[in-house]
Amino acid sequence: MDTAAVHAGRFVTPANASSSPPLFAASSYAFRDLDQMEEIYAETTAGAIYGRYGGPNTRHFASAIADLEGAEAAVAAASGMAAVDAAWRPLLRTGDRIVASTELYGGTYDLLEKGYRERGVEVVLVAQGDLGALERAVREGPCRVVHVETLTNPLVHVTDLEAVGRLAREAGAVYTVDATFTTPILCRPLRHGADLVIHSVGKYIGGHADVGLGVVSGDAAAIAEAERSIVRQGAPASHFDAWLALRGLRTLALRMARHSENARAIAAFLASRPEVAAVHHPSLPTHPQHALAQRLYPQGTGGMLAFELRGGAPAVDRLLRELRRVQIVHSLGEVATTISYSVRSSHRFLSDAQRAELGAGDGTLRLSCGIEDARDIIADLEQALAKAGSSVPV
Ligand code: PLP
Question: What is the reported pTM?
Answer without folding.
Answer: 0.95
